[in-house]
Amino acid sequence: MPIANKIKIPNSKDSVLIGTVERGQLKKGEHIEIRGFEHFQKVTAGEIQVFKKTVNQVRAGEQCGILCRNLIFDGVHKGMWLGAPGTVQTTNIVKIKLYMLNENENGRKQGIRSGHTVLTFCTTWDKGCRIFFDNELLMPGEVTTGYLVFLREVPIRKGSKITLRESRRRVLGHGVVVELYEQQFLDTWNRFDAEGFLKDLKPLDENKKRK
């Protein structure tokens, strides 16, 4: 479940996390983990509410509020994902299939080169990154396969739909994640060698539970 909001309960160590369940189900009392942006916590799901009604479990497609016991409030941020232990995947490199909007779709008039800086929106998070592709130039209206590289890990999975923007108002294109790769250390874009960095990528096994 991507986290859309959080509420601190006064005079308590508990907090409420709000979002829409994307897959599976969650029952009261189950252990859950929260991952994303180099933060990680394990907590227990307490009371669950759907439209101000207390329920024993929540299923995919339902918007809910989950009471989390002993949550470190400052360690949770909008966009992080909540799920069963070991199931939330994070990385800083993904492969995408992208369609670039044309001018008639309020897209760009000119193409972009590999290494272009974009703002990526996925579920409830948005982060800056760079996009790399084999073509020298990607023109409006074209479809391509490329790589998104982030400086820090983000919660994401195969099939995630993304929107690329050059600003919060201007959409560059839409895409879908087709592959995840093992996270690579990257602390700055200075002297970044894209060819060498992307040469030996190892696919991330989504079926392998994380510790």
From TrEMBL:
One of its GO terms (molecular function) is translation elongation factor activity. Pfam families: GTP_EFTU_D2. Keywords: GTP-binding, Nucleotide-binding. One of its GO terms (biological process) is mitochondrial translational elongation. It comes from the Eukaryota. PANTHER family: ELONGATION FACTOR TU, MITOCHONDRIAL, ELONGATION FACTOR TU-RELATED. This is Translation elongation factor EFTu-like domain-containing protein.
